[in-house]
């Protein structure tokens, strides 16, 4: 490169570097690692000894995440798609997992609720860095009967009931004061009426067609085990990492 071109390239590189906000995100990113032995224990994972269906393996891995001190292992990403097929994602809490599926709860009128009504199919994602593990599930989603949703809500904390009673999730909020007012009323009602119904609160169940278990490995020889539902049970296959 001629000297003038080199000078102008370095001037434009420093101009773009100085245009970056402080702290420098790119510098920070280069200091970070995954599968670092300082923060992560990477257990051996032998796919030949896994159970025939994913629920049993999920339950074992969940208990191991709790035992390893993984913060909030019961939070997960829920991916849906809008009527145009465009993806969307957010965090929700896992309410249970059994042969009927993995359950979570939300308002039927929320953005995700409307997306699920139009396209009742979703993906769930767990990442438990304490053990270098990731789990992905995909499948159709159904709403549980309303009585079950209300019973599930009333077995939870006053805060959970107050949040559900506040309602209007995903609507545009006029001001913080408006939320404070509505929330205060909802908390008072939740304390006064621990069985107050939250009519739009819905318990959803995702029944997976596919479940993938990923065990990270320091040498990047990650183990990926995929379960696919068949007419007679589950097919188990390894995937290249
Ligand atoms: C840790 C955590 C847990 C959450 N759990 C729930 C939940 O169980 N149900 C829910 O409706 N929203 C939950 N939220 C809020 C959602 O991420 C989201 O902001 C909200 O449901 C609105 O999403 P939507 O506009 O896509 O419908 C949680 C958020 C966080 C950060």
Descriptive overview:
This protein has 241 residues and is of the alpha+beta class. The chain has one domain: Pnp Oxidase, Chain A. The chain is built from 7 helices and 10 strands. Strands 1, 2, 3, 4, 5, 6, 7, 8, 9 and 10 form a 10-stranded antiparallel beta sheet that branches. Helix 6 crosses helix 7. It starts with a helix and ends with a strand. Bound molecules: flavin mononucleotide (FMN). Flavin mononucleotide binds next to strand 2, strand 4 and helix 4.
Architecture (CATH level 2) name: Roll
Secondary structure tally: strands: 10
- The count of domains is 1
CATH T-level topology: Pnp Oxidase, Chain A
Largest sheet: 10 strands, antiparallel
What's the average pLDDT?
A: 92
* Gyration radius, rounded: 23 Å
Uncertain stretches of 5 or more adjacent residues: 1-15
Distance between the termini: 39 Å
The H-and-E topology, N to C, reads as HHHEEEEHEEHHHEEEE
Fraction of residues in H or I helices: 25-40%
- Number of helix segments? 7
User: SS-based structural class?
Assistant: alpha+beta
Large-scale geometry: globular
Query: Which CATH top level class fits?
Result: Mainly Beta
Task: Name the beta content range.
Answer: 25-35%
Heterogens: flavin mononucleotide
Name the CATH superfamily assignment: Electron Transport, Fmn-binding Protein, Chain A
Family: Belongs to the pyridoxamine 5'-phosphate oxidase family.
GO biological process, one term: pyridoxine biosynthetic process
GO molecular function: FMN binding; pyridoxamine phosphate oxidase activity
Protein name: Oxidase
């Amino acid at each position: 490169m001629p000297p003038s071109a080199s000078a102008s390239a370095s001037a434009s590189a420093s101009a773009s570097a100085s245009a970056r906000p402080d702290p420098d995100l790119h510098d920070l990113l280069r200091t970070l690692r995954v599968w670092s032995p300082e923060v992560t224990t990477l257990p051996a994972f032998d796919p030949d000894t896994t159970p025939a269906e994913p629920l049993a393996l999920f339950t074992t891995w969940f208990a191991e995440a709790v035992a390893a001190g993984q913060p909030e292992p019961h939070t997960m990403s829920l991916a849906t798609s809008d009527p145009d097929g465009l993806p969307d994602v957010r965090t929700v809490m896992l309410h249970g997992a059994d042969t009927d599926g993995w359950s979570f709860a939300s308002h039927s009128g929320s953005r995700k609720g409307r997306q699920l009504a139009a396209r009742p199919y979703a993906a769930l994602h767990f990442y438990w860095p304490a053990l270098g593990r990731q789990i992905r599930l995909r499948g159709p989603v159904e709403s549980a009967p309303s009585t079950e949703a209300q019973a599930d809500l009333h077995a939870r904390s006053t805060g959970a009931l107050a949040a559900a009673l506040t309602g209007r999730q995903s609507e545009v909020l006029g001001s913080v004061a408006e939320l404070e007012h509505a929330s205060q009323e909802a908390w008072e009602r939740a304390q006064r009426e621990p069985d107050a119904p939250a009519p739009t609160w819905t318990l959803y169940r995702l029944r997976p067609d596919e479940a993938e278990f990923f065990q990270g490995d320091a040498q990047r020889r990650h183990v990926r085990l995929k379960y696919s539902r068949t007419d007679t049970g589950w097919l188990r296959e390894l995937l290249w990492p």
